[in-house]
Design goal:
The termini are far apart. Strands 4, 5, 7, 8, 9, 10, 11, 12, 13 and 14 form a ten-stranded mixed β-sheet that branches. Strands 1-2-3 form a three-stranded antiparallel β-sheet. Strands 6-15 form a two-stranded parallel ribbon. The longest helix has 22 residues. The chain is about 35% helix and about 15% strand. Bound molecules: magnesium ion. Magnesium ion (MG) binds next to loops.
């Protein structure tokens, strides 16, 4: 093996084995057979990320030393002068994770070893339990518990609840309608039912998904306090961060925040102000493993735990990156996980495995997950105009999804 390994090619693979459009980035090197994969999934705008990687990062980075991850991250971050934002951060993340994958392969070690080694053998994961009624959610919770899960995020009728027959004005535009007031009333009833039936030993979580006005979110956090949540997620929108102080001052419901964040000024005041309990960015959206490991260390100083975003629009490579951080960070809290379908496992050999509520990495060096590009091509990404992000309240007003 030569001392310096240079980047020789960078390209994007788009694939949707489970329906979600995934964006992954392959970095090739001057060392024969040595390459890495990173996650750059911005599922709503995959083609914009592909252009950012192949038309802007590739010409900038081909020929550089693949070992110089920190220098490459900073160079890519400021090279566009205007920085941050989901398209450019995801593009950088694809390269960044791939370089960590390459460094691990060069060292013959899993990435968690490069980060300081394991703090734990596996990461506890939470699953999503949804249903149309409190009884239906209870059934879903019991099914997951029977499979060994001890952390469950409970929702009734999707984020913000499902709208029934709303009194819409004439001519109301089409969209994904919901009723914030009905939603806010329904959540305490759901938790009252669940704690009365499944008890307090299972950890329950809930995602508000920024669907309430700040004062209603404050009241909900207070109303849920007796039900001892593991955390309440995205109670406020990134545009309303100053209201977290009001939640903190009025109740001890644990607060998780951050999946929409992509700028350091969004998370640093919340952590340093001790205003949240869990930080949960989407690691590709914030720029990859390089910034995420720094946030984890910063949060550790303030006793804030990690709960990285892990839905279906994170590729198995992104999930592996979450997991390597989960294993190596003392302040790990819990890991979101949406499950891997057979098609995902087929396209991404080496997917982490979950047993009895814990996620385990494989023993391969790097991030441990490969891509079968022939099989990936069997699941092309369809262009479509999403409806769920065309969210509206009963009078037809467009609101945050
Ligand atoms: Mg969420």
């Amino acid at each position: 093996m030569s001392d310096t390994v240079k980047i020789t090619d960078i390209r994007v693979v788009l694939t949707a084995p489970a329906g979600c459009r995934l964006v992954v980035v392959r970095v090739d090197t001057s060392e024969p057979g040595l390459y890495g994969w990173g996650c750059a999934t911005f599922t709503q705008r995959p083609l914009a990320v592909k252009v950012a990687v192949e038309e802007y990062l590739k010409p900038l980075l081909v020929g550089r030393d693949a070992d110089r991850i920190e220098d490459i991250w900073r160079t890519a971050w400021v090279h566009s002068y205007w920085r941050n934002g989901p398209v450019l951060n995801n593009a950088i993340s694809g390269v960044d994770m791939a370089l960590w994958d390459i460094k691990g392969k060069r060292a013959g070690m899993p990435v968690y070893q490069l980060l300081g080694g394991k703090c734990r053998e596996a990461a506890a994961v939470y699953r999503h339990a949804d249903g149309a009624s409190p009884g239906a959610v209870e059934e879903s919770v019991r099914r997951w518990m029977a499979e060994g899960y001890r952390h469950l995020r409970v929702q009734m009728g999707g984020y913000g609840g499902r709208a029934g027959d709303l009194p819409k004005p004439e001519g109301a535009l089409p969209g994904a309608y919901y009723d914030p007031a009905a939603y806010a009333r329904s959540v305490p009833r759901l938790f009252e039912h669940l704690r009365g039936t499944v008890g307090f030993e299972v950890e329950l979580l809930h995602d508000v998904h920024e669907r309430l006005h700040p004062v209603d979110a404050i009241r909900l956090a207070k109303e849920l306090e007796p039900y001892r949540l593991f955390f309440l997620e995205d109670a406020l929108a990134p545009e309303d961060l100053e209201y977290f102080a009001a939640i903190r001052s009025q109740c001890a419901t644990p607060i998780a925040m951050g999946e929409l964040f992509n700028h350091p000024r969004e998370w640093t005041p919340l952590i340093a102000g001790r205003l949240i309990d869990f930080i949960r960015m989407h690691i590709s959206q914030m720029g990859g493993l390089t910034p995420a490991r720094k946030v984890a260390a910063f949060a550790e100083m303030y006793n804030v735990r990690t709960a990285w975003h892990g839905p279906g629009d994170v590729s198995p490579i992104g999930h592996a990156c979450n997991l390597h951080l989960d294993l190596a960070c003392p302040n790990f809290g819990v890991q979101e996980w949406a499950g891997f379908s057979d098609a995902l496992r087929e396209v991404f050999p080496g997917c982490p495995e979950v047993r009895n509520g814990y996620m385990y990495p494989n023993a391969r060096p790097g991030l441990g997950v490969d891509v079968d590009e022939v099989k990936a091509a069997k699941y092309p990404c369809a262009s479509q105009v999403d409806v769920w992000t065309q969210t509206r309240t009963p009078d037809g007003t467009a609101v945050k999804p």
